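Hi V.,

Quick status before I head out on leave. The structure for the redesign project is tokenized and pasted below; the design run finished overnight.
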């Protein structure tokens, strides 16, 4: 039995060295770290979008023990525009995060989405051998399970939706809601991050398809699909070891010495769902209400560039940088500036050093499917406080965090003060309980558990 992973994102990306040689380096991200070992053990194929100008082909991976193939599907510029930047990220992404006013439902985008999903499905069918498990990932490829099912009626197919599944009232604004649901229901096992998302999905199936549902199950067109909540984890041990390494400790100490203040930290992709402007407004309110904090508290905001070709994201960058400039201009005194703004990607070691140095971690999205930054900070911090939006999928998993409503800057400002002033013994007790939860559901347990369930269908 082998494993076929179908994902928009590839686990290894080509990197051309200065001498012109092509090397394959692992992609950074939870999905790659979770599924690469599973594929190494089982053998099989990872099918993904590859940006090189090539047809679907097998790539020789660098590890001597690698037992699976990476097949890269090239998309045309029009397909990238209409399937990825169009329907996936201008329709499904905002709709799923409750930003209906941002959703653009265009027929050209839908047609491209159908065509690209069909190409992924056909690649999976060509790679399939009797007994293989097929695991399809995320909102970009929601039609793939149903398309595979048509060609391989007896195959075991899993699907995981990695972003929020919205309420049925929101989901039904999508003109192709029935088609998306039908595609997903081609899977035997459907995974989502929270019980709330599962409930919303079951409701959508009832309302849009008149499907029979009961707890964790959808019956439709003579088939039964199980729907489970399985929040993804992180590589807890990897983060813990890195956080305790001399190099990271030195970098964290350097950051503390440089700032010489208490540190609030935000780490986000620059996306409108992450609530960065609202967080900045809350910090401005905090400094207005507590002038004694000026010169004593710094907000370090790491904003990782995202979808820079999309106009709305360029506008968001301008909004955020404008707010940073205004707040720094308003409150800066002496050699202290209230916000240190970092607009770039950061490597894992630098990121962990920031986690280690922070007194308070601010994870305050307006809506988030789960949020692994909250888990990474928890694994890395020695005595920090996690401030977490109630609208992050991880909120139910991490009840010891200080939970906030990001739509209320005034209340968030109060919570910033509470977190900064929390007694040390309470900080450590909260972190200990949070870390115990992480160890109970780490990244590899997530992947292995889902595959065992799928195999047992």
């Amino acid at each position: 039995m082998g494993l076929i992973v179908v994902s928009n994102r590839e686990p290894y990306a080509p990197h051309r060295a200065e001498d012109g040689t092509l090397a394959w380096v692992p992609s950074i991200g939870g999905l790659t770290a979770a599924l690469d070992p599973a594929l190494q053990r089982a053998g099989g194929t990872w099918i993904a979008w590859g940006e090189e100008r090539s047809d679907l082909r097998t790539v020789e991976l660098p590890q001597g023990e690698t037992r699976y193939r990476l097949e890269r599907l090239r998309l045309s510029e029009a397909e990238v525009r209409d399937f990825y930047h169009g329907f996936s990220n201008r329709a499904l992404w905002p709709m799923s995060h409750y930003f209906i006013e941002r959703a653009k439902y265009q027929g050209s985008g839908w047609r491209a989405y159908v065509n690209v999903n069909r190409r992924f499905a056909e690649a999976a069918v060509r790679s399939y051998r009797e007994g293989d498990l097929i695991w399809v990932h995320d909102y970009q490829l929601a039609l793939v399970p149903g398309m595979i099912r048509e060609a391989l009626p007896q195959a075991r197919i899993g699907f995981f939706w990695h972003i929020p599944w919205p309420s049925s009232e929101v989901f039904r604004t999508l003109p192709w809601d029935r088609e998306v649901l039908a595609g997903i229901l081609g899977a035997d096992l459907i995974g989502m991050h929270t019980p709330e998302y599962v409930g919303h999905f079951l409701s959508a199936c009832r309302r849009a398809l008149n499907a029979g549902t009961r707890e964790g199950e959808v019956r439709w067109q003579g088939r039964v699909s199980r729907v489970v909540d399985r929040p993804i984890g992180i590589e807890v041990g990897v983060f813990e070891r890195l956080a305790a390494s001399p190099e990271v400790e030195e970098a964290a100490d350097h950051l503390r010495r440089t700032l010489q203040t208490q540190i609030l930290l935000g780490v986000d992709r620059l996306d409108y769902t992450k609530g960065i402007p609202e967080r900045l407004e809350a910090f401005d309110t905090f400094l207005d209400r507590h002038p004694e904090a000026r010169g004593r508290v710094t907000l370090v905001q790491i904003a990782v560039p995202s979808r820079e070709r999309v106009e709305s994201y360029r506008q968001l960058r301008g909004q955020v940088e404008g707010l940073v400039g205004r707040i720094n201009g308003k409150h800066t005194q002496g050699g202290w500036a209230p916000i240190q703004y970092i607009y770039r990607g950061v490597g894992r070691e630098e990121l962990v050093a920031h986690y280690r140095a922070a007194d308070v971690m601010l994870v305050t999205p307006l809506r988030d499917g789960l949020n692994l930054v909250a888990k990474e900070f928890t694994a890395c911090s020695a005595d920090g406080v996690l401030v977490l939006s109630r609208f992050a999928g991880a909120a139910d998993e991490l009840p010891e965090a200080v939970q906030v409503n990001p739509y209320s800057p005034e209340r968030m400002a109060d919570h910033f003060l509470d977190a900064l002033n929390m007694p040390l013994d309470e900080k450590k007790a909260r972190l200990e309980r949070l870390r115990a939860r992480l160890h109970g559901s780490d990244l590899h347990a997530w992947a292995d558990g889902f595959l065992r369930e799928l195999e047992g269908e």
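Above is the designed sequence. The chain has 16 helices and 18 strands.

G. will cover questions while I'm gone.

Best,
W.
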